[in-house]
Amino acid sequence: MYAMQYEITLPADYDMEIIRRRVATRGHLTDAYEGLGFKAYLIRERGTDGSPVNQYAPCYLWDDTAGMNRFLWGGGGFNGIIDDFGRPAVHHWTGAAFLEGPARRAAPRAASRHSEPVPAGADPAVVVGRALGEAEKRAGEPGVHSTVVAVDPRHWEVVRLTLWEHAASEADAVRYELLHLSTPHLDEIPVGRQWD
Q1: Which domain of life is it from (predicted)?
Q2: Which secondary-structure segment (H or E) carries 158?
Q3: Across the strands, what pairs with 110?
Q4: CATH, range 2-193
Q5: Is-contact 158 131, C-beta < 8 A?
Q6: Three-state SS for 43?
Q7: pLDDT value at residue 116
Q8: How confident is the model at residue 108 (pLDDT cuts 50, 70, 90)?
Q9: 77-94 per-position pLDDT tens digit
Q10: How far apart are alpha carbons 46 and 152 in whole angstroms?
C-alpha cells in the first residue's frame, strides 16, 4: 500500500469553480483505475476552514506500485496535470495502516491531514506505533469514513489522512473539501496495520 499526494497552489484570486468543473468532468476517469484503492479529489479554498491558500491537492491510496507507476509515467493520467499546471512535486509515503470508520459506506465530503516528523534519535517503531494508536481512536469517531497512516522514511515524516462524511475535524491543521472519491479497489486494501 502506498499513499501519494501533490499540491498545486493557485493564485489568491483564482476561481476555484474552474477546479470544481475539472473534477466534475474528469473525476470519473479514475473510477475504474487498476491498482487504485482510492483517489480523493481535494481542494482548499482561501479563507475556508482556515486555509491561507487556494489549492488543488488530490490524494491517492494505491494497492500496488504498478498502478502508481502507470499513472505517473506510463501515460495513465499524470500527464494531464503536467499539461495544465506544470509538473508538481509528488509526495509519497509507504502505507503503514488503513482503518475503516463508522461512516465507511457513506460518501465522504471532507478530508484532513495531520503530519508529524520522526525526531532524530527517536525509534521509528515507537513513533509509528503511537500514530497508529491515534489513528485507531480517530477511526472510531462519528463521521469518519476511513483513515490512512503512512510514513516517508526519507524525510522521516508520519502522515495521517482521514476522510470524513461531513466536516473534517478542526483538530487537524490541514482540512480539505472532497469533490469526488474514486474507489475502484478500496475493498482490496487490507484493513489494519500493513505488516506482520
Answers
A1: Bacteria
A2: strand 157-164
A3: 164, 177
A4: 3.30.70.100
A5: yes
A6: strand
A7: 93
A8: very high
A9: 899 999 999 999 999 999
A10: 28
